[in-house]
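Protein 1 of 2
SEQ + STRUCT:
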Amino acid sequence: VQLQESGPGLVKPSETLSLTCTVSGGSITTNSVVWGWIRQPPGKEPEWMGAIDASGTTYYNPSLKSRTSISRDTSKNQFTLQLSSVAPRGTAVYYCGRGSEGWSPWGQGTQVTVYS
């Protein structure tokens, strides 16, 4: 399985960030597998943001839940992260990954910089 993140590298404060993860070599509708997002700001630990499972049920970090939405397009085997009202502290490398008794693999990550 391989995952590839895509989306804008620069976002302005208060805008909505939208990132897409394209999955190859496996289906996002596979039972007992979830697909999620984490982000890692410079010099900090990774932060789990949320996930979506095979049935389309979503799970969110409570601290981000009010601003986060994860959806999917099964026809394209993709899932998408939307984070509203981004702030400069949202500058980070964003990763998508596959979860099944542990998280692996992860995509290579995509740098997102929030600037004004």
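Protein 2 of 2
SEQ + STRUCT:
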Amino acid sequence: QVQLVESGGGLVQPGGSLRLSCAASGFTFSNYVMNWYRQAPGKERELVAGISSGGSVRNYADFVKGRFTISRDNAKNTVYLQMNSLKPECTAVYYCYVRQLGSWGQGTQVTVSS
């Protein structure tokens, strides 16, 4: 069955960086658009970034443009989210999502705090 396993979250100081990974299995990864979402406490889940199946097209929410980069390695069935210049308001659980399959990962917690 479809599995999405996020990793790489943690506690980081403001201005720091983290790289999230989402390892996928159970489907032909290279055929699907992949997305990262996040959900902060008390807020709705929101789209952070997306990447086309081949990796040539990427889109970002306005609040992360210039700071976050989404990428993928289809040979490793993994999608990444490089997060730089992190701010306290980036604190959230970050999820991997395959819209066409309606599948979510379990999420990885990112906390930005001094």
